[in-house]
Design a protein that fits this description.
Shape: globular
Number of helices: 5
Radius of gyration: 19 Å
Structural class: mainly alpha
Number of strands: 0
Order of helices and strands: HHHHH
Helix content: 55-70%
Length: 172
């Protein structure tokens, strides 16, 4: 949530300072609105289970499984909605269309994609753990709140890594 807060703050400042057009033109699509709605639902669910479901089974809150199921169901709904959009955003002179590049690879199979995805998911999970532990150490050494470290520094790092990645082809 901290990264989302920092990125939203950066976008708000960018929208205020860029007077040529509203920046939301870049995100005007039905799937993007549904992703935002899914995010709100998931965050609301987290807050609800924090206050009402205070038990665990073998160190895991059963609501975690419900969150995974809810997320998968939400992504599936977004995928279905993308195929049959209920409305189309109005294009203006300031609208930048998303360009999707498809690469055809004859060597891709369901098994190889699943293996590659699993390996990359494990790397992301391990990296997230390392970042979280590093944040705890920084918070302890600098006598800062862990909330500040998590909310600000990881959000800024996410923003920096996205917008300053040389492979990123989005206009800055």
């Amino acid at each position: 949530m901290g990264g989302i807060l920092a990125q939203t703050t950066f976008l708000a400042f960018a929208d205020i300072s860029y007077k040529k057009a509203n920046l939301e033109h870049a995100a005007a699509s039905y799937p993007n609105l549904m992703h935002g709605t899914l995010l709100i639902i998931m965050l609301s669910f987290i807050f609800l289970i924090t206050f009402f479901l205070e038990f665990s089974v073998k160190g895991t809150n059963p609501a975690s499984i419900l969150m995974i199921i809810g997320y998968i169901a939400g992504v599936r709904m977004i995928w279905k909605a993308k195929r049959r959009a209920m409305w189309v955003p109005k294009s203006t002179a300031s609208t930048d269309e998303d360009l999707v590049l498809y690469v055809e690879d004859g060597d891709l199979s369901k098994k190889s994609v699943t293996i590659k995805f699993s390996i990359l998911a494990a790397i992301v999970a391990f990296s997230g753990y390392v970042v979280a532990e590093t944040g705890i150490v920084i918070a302890a050494e600098k006598r800062l709140s862990e909330t500040i470290i998590g909310g600000l520094f990881t959000g800024v790092a996410s923003y920096y890594s996205y917008f300053y990645n040389p492979n990123n082809q989005i206009k800055k």
